[in-house]
Amino acid sequence: MRAVALAALTLTAAAALSACSGAQPPGGSPAERTRAQDDPILGVAAPANQDPPECAAPVVERTPDVPTAELTVAGQPGDTFTYEIRKKDGTTASGTSGEFGPDQREVVFATGVPNADIELVTISADGPTGTPGTCTITTIT
Q: Whole-model pTM?
């Protein structure tokens, strides 16, 4: 009987500590959740024949308060992401993540392009689960 009471007390304490520690709810963080086959990989989708939507957190995030564009894109194994930066002078810079490995959940693009030089950032995604797509970042500071 004492063993059962001790086990119940231990379980209650563990649950309380988990709640206080900021543990993730079931399903994990947004990057760890699985996508349905018809969910947009980038988390946003544009209706057919319209401009790409604005990229949105938590899938695409800009690192704030840095002098150059730094982008973090969350995904799942098998995903591939590319970015293209259109500069104010008309030139472009681009990069790709390559295919995400079995344990990869995000990529950080440290572009080296000064924010002051950027007109538009476009992120594209493809992967085995979810719908491919494109989104843009139009507010560059």
A: 0.75
